[in-house]
């Protein structure tokens, strides 16, 4: 390359940093479509019929970074075909299988503003007003949970070296942060011992004379908790899973008995985790009772309200989470039922000084006495997602959330009724928040199973379940592939089996009704579609009907 | 509220989900300004003169979530005044204090697309084509580091249950993920022992018969490593900081001696971390020698190339990172010198099966045998940031990055020369990549200090340093407040003191030249401005000049 050519390439390159996309460019047109009609854009751009993953992968096979630069318009064209077309229409009102929803329009331009400002929240020097804003959002969420006095927030919300919580990329990091802090508070500096943060877990256990640590949680606890136990060096086996009662809530009496047994083995219960909205069935543990038990055991009480936490915004239904105000820490994901885009988790600490147990400093950053938020977070550099939560809280407001949450919960109750009154469907778990599970069970099979249950004929029930599992998987997979609607699936032990004393885990459909645009008609249509698909099954359905006859 | 009123509020509320922002609305106008002239928007909207933080906080005092919804336009107006105006213009070409830069324009509309699609990368069911895309980006980065064969990538890039790395929100999580995996690989299942992931650190140490674990790293290692040691239960004291040689690179001989001492105490070196681009001085450890030592010790070799890693994209300068291809894992932040917005960290694993040590499954998600990326990440739900890295790799290409990286490194060399030849400035550390440190030292003081150094008069050097520290802080703070340009500051022991055998830590200016729009003229102007500010100091400067005379 000659010097002149080099100069020319360089100038061409700098233009991507200085010359905006022309209004008529491919990417600008795409952007305009998104701005003017996101739902339409997604409906048109995302293909309805599923392409096998191995075929999608063909477009992403190249393993070398391409040498030559590519025109933005060519790239945009290509991505429309290979990426957008084969994305998931997570905001479709009929996509009711996961905790995604339609987003308010205003988050689109605001996200762009956030990206354009490109602040780094680790430190005030690279975030300035974003730091007080994030502290305010944490303060508002703290108030939503704990309802402390005005004086409390005046003292603590913007106070250097403390924080009312931490923003995280998601609920997993929030749970890790909470339990990391709890572990460090438990094994804190004491006498000669400089604390677990400095000297590690083994010396901590030795100093305090514990054989081991344990965390107790419902068997319905999120898998991020066992990830946490692994990460923190406690070990997944020390996440003690406590059975639930018939309503999918943790059995606090059994938990108390387990705690006693652990105590006898000199294993210190480091924390109790209450689940406020289990991922599989949406139930809420008896938080008040758990808080009392945590007091008895003198241990940390964490509530994983990653998605249930949003229901605190409903005056009508917040009673369902009663006891959460006694938690030492709470996880809430704003990207679930608070209608913020992916990437906005939070952990809130009751005591503003609690997070000091994980405080870090560094010379060039996070100086002592500063108001930098990065000294009490697991993550380092991170974006200003707090702005989008702030925007939703202000623009939707308590009154707006009241309507959104209540509608969502009431839609779940409507769907539960619909399932119960529709032939060949069986509601497996009632909605406590906006999540429920159910399955397709031909009427004749329902009756035969009821009889088997009355007879205590476990073997027969197992036979039915095996076939029903196959049928449920078939329906769920086919429905997803058809692309009109989507429900997810999981495996749980239906309530009506609990008395049998055996675990009859079954595959079930799982539905989350968080999308404000999901209508009753869509829910009716989901059952119609599932009924049609089930009737096409040539493998499990005939066997089921046959078995019911014998 | 009557039923009719309630219905009306509900309909109004649903409009934020269904009716796009009107083209003439406040928020649309703001967005247009951002799209058409980001630099102009930031220059006009972000105020130049700094407002004290306590005043900014006044706009973020309210601790209650407002009851009434707010118009989007009112909110947008308010945020322009309270948030945007007091943000940091991180992309200004004269903002050379941190690792932020101007962004390519195309990331703005693409970010919007990413937010609109709102995919969740934890699982294919909520990400589909985004998962193969992310795997491809990880594959390309793997190839950039390890240059494996085509067959290798064909076998592994899209293979279920393995991954060539993990996307993370940033370098901190990437470092944690790498060392978590290393810890779990070391204390893996063996005989009766089910592995640390299941049974915890204490049982792991007991089973393998180690007294403790240690991680060795240069004293210039990033603070995220001590955070990692805390989190993993190893303890910050077990991050063994090894002194550097005169060039700010870790002293491998000293590291070897330390390793022997640890071995004698039966403390297992779990990992050696090489730094490829220290945060404070930008130097690169002798990676080849570290790799050899790691082989001798039979331990994990991790390279923290969070910002230095981008230099691998330069054929001309990638030799500076020689030895990185022998690392077991590497951290690279795309939001640093790869020109991607905040929130795009990566850890890359040499061995595709390595991350199996942190694998997690759950019934409703992450089923065994799936290609879900979430089973080998620390985070759970997370956004499709990989798309923006993918876009930069394709649109900028190797050739484009070659120019950007080379210019950046050469600009640093130019600035170093400029500092050396400008009166009253002292270069403290030479740029190896695009980072350097320096300070303002009046010529007379430079000479007096040289004499004191020759005399070995430590006391006198300390006196000078104390005053220089004050002066440097004054200049840096005032410069930031004036808002025209920005350099950061840190504390290091300048090279020319190393032979004295004492640690004469000094406050220095720190400059990162990653922004392609930073010109030579801007750099010249930075020194002019600093000279002016220094001359205004009435406290330290007179004392310094006085001391130099005695």
Explain this structure.
Chains A, B: The modification N6-(pyridoxal phosphate)lysine is found at residue 336. The structure is a homodimer of 550-residue chains. Chain A is of the alpha/beta class and 550 residues long. The first copy, chain A, folds into 3 domains: 3-82, no CATH class; 119-382, Type I PLP-dependent aspartate aminotransferase-like (Major domain) (Aspartate Aminotransferase, domain 2, 3-Layer(aba) Sandwich), CATH 3.40.640.10; 398-549, Alpha-Beta Complex (Aspartate Aminotransferase, domain 1). Helix content of chain A is 45%, strand content 11%. The first copy, chain A, contains 19 helices and 11 strands. Chain A has helices spanning 3-18, 26-36, 38-45, 53-58, 72-84, 107-117, 130-146, 150-156, 171-186, 196-199, 201-208, 224-231, 252-264, 287-297, 386-421, 443-455, 458-482, 520-536, 540-549, and strands spanning 165-168, 212-218, 239-242, 267-275, 300-304, 329-333, 345-349, 425-429, 435-440, 488-492, 506-512. Chain A has a 7-stranded mixed beta sheet with strand order 1-7-6-5-4-2-3, sandwiched between helices. A 4-stranded antiparallel beta sheet of chain A has the order 8-9-11-10, with helices on one face. In chain A, strand 2 (212-218), helix 12 and strand 3 form a beta-alpha-beta unit. The first copy, chain A, is globular and about 85 Å long. The model of chain A has no long low-confidence stretch (mean pLDDT 93). Chains A and B meet through helix 1, helix 2, helix 3, helix 4 and helix 5 of A and helix 1, helix 2, helix 3, helix 4 and helix 5 of B.
């Amino acid at each position: 390359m000659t010097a002149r050519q080099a100069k020319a390439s360089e100038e061409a390159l700098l233009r991507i940093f200085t010359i905006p996309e022309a209004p008529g460019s491919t990417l600008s047109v795409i952007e305009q479509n998104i701005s003017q009609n996101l739902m339409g854009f997604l409906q048109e751009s995302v293909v309805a019929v599923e392409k096998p993953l191995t075929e999608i992968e063909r477009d992403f096979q190249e393993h070398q970074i391409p040498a030559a630069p590519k025109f933005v318009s060519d790239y945009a064209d290509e991505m429309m075909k290979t990426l957008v077309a084969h994305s998931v229409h997570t905001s479709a009102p009929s996509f009711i299988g996961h905790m995604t929803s339609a987003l308010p329009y205003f988050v689109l331009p605001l996200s762009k503003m956030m990206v354009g400002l490109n602040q780094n929240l680790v430190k005030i020097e690279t975030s300035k007003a974003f730091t007080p804003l994030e502290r305010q959002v944490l303060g508002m969420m703290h108030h939503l949970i704990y309802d402390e006095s005005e004086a409390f927030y005046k003292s603590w919300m913007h106070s250097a070296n403390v924080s009312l919580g931490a923003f995280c990329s998601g609920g997993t990091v929030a749970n890790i942060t909470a339990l990391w802090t709890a572990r460090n508070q438990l094994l804190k500096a004491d006498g000669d011992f400089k604390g677990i943060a400095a000297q590690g877990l083994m010396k901590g256990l030795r100093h305090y004379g514990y054989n081991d640590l344990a965390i107790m949680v419902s068997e319905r606890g999120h898998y991020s908790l066992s990830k946490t136990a692994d990460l923190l060096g406690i070990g997944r086996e020390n996440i003690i899973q406590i059975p639930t009662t018939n309503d999918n809530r943790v059995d606090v009496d059994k938990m108390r008995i387990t705690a006693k047994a652990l105590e006898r083995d000199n294993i210190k219960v480091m924390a109790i985790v209450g689940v406020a909205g289990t991922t599989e069935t949406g139930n809420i543990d008896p938080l008040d009772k758990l808080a009392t038990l945590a007091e008895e055991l003198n241990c940390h009480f964490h509530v994983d309200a990653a998605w249930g936490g949003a229901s605190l915004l409903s005056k009508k239904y917040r009673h369902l989470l009663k006891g959460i105000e006694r938690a030492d820490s709470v996880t809430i994901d704003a990207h679930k039922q608070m209608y913020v885009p992916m990437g906005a988790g939070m952990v809130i600490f009751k005591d503003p000084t609690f997070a000091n147990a994980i405080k870090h400093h560094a010379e060039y950053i996070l100086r002592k006495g500063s108001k930098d938020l990065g000294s009490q977070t697991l993550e380092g550099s991170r974006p200003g997602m707090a702005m989008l939560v702030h925007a939703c809280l202000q623009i939707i407001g308590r009154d707006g959330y009241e309507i959104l949450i209540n509608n969502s919960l009431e839609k779940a109750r409507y769907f539960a009724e619909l399932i119960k009154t529709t032939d060949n469907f069986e509601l497996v778990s009632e909605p406590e928040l906006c999540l429920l599970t159910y399955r397709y069970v031909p009427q004749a099979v329902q009756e035969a199973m009821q009889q088997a249950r009355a007879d205590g004929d476990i073997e027969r029930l197992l036979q039915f379940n095996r076939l029903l599992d196959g049928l449920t998987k078939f329906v769920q997979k086919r429905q997803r592939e058809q692309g009109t609607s989507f429900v997810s699936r999981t495996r749980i032990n239906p309530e009506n089996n609990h008395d049998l004393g055996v675990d009859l885990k079954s595959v079930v459909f799982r539905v989350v009704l968080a999308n404000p645009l999901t209508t009753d008609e869509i829910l009716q249509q989901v059952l119609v579609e599932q009924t049609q698909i089930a009737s096409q099954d040539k493998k499990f359905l005939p066997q089921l009907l046959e078995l019911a006859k014998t």
